[in-house]
Please model this.
Amino acid sequence: MKKNLSTNRIYIGVGVAFIICTAFFHIILFYNTDNRVIRGAAIIFSLLVLLLGILLIFLLKGKLTAFSDSLNACIDDIVARKEDVTFDLESETLTGKFNYKLQRLYEIMQSGKRQVQEEKQSIQEMISDISHQVKTPVTNLKMYNSTLLERRLAPEKELEFHMLMESQINKLDFLMQAMVKMSRLETGVITLSVSPAPIYDTVGLALAGIERSAEKKQIGVTVSCDPGLIVPHDKKWTAEALFNILDNAVKYTPTGGKISVAVERWEMATKIDIADTGRGIPEQHYAQIFKRFYREDEVHDISGVGVGLYLCREIISKQGGYIQVKSEVGQGSTFSVFLPNERQL
Model:
């Protein structure tokens, strides 16, 4: 096996080779000429070259030592996970190029570290949100069940308790399904399959989910959409997003109200407006309503857990789209969903 040569051995080898070559040159020169001037000039020239070579070696060694010390300091700072690592970037030099690559590696490592911390924080927040949301229905179920076990109630009252328990069970079931959808979307377990498809069919699929609830409240639903309008989107998940908006529209629109869906193709995107004549949303709450588990204090008497609009924003944004909201308290709200007309790569 070949041994790795150290820099000192390389310097010694180069020096020895130079001395041998110089000695060989002088032997030939002295053998072929008796001119003292030429011999003297050759000796002086050889000594100057030797001195310059030694000087060059020392300068090179100093440069390599400085580079090595700088590199070791940077690596030590990176290993120590310091936040303010400095890099000596000398333009158009080997040292500068190497430090630039090292800086890029450090930035990638820092980005990965921040991403892990953000994901950890997100998981902690989700666990906290889930525990908070589950606490109330579980507490209610325990209370109802304990009452039924410890006391004899009239059949009518017992039926009422069973119905209350069923509503809490349904809330838990809805919450768990929403949790599964959120976790799969956020962790990338589910990837959206975007392909050109008629948006009319997707809107129809979303409307089918609110048909019964809208009829119960005698809410009129109108649709304006070109059946031949093709938009790149994931049909299943986009229908889920539109359903969540429509479901909220039914919940917060009083009996006898109206809901309208209008689809319009713009130059860069297709706009889907979902308007209702419900209670409306204060302007200062526009950004908050898309947060996970957010619900206004005034609507806690209406069923829901506050994940519908959060899921909607996640689904639309993963397709390169976005959502806008305009509302006036007491007059209703309009949610505008924008989907790009060109498939996002």
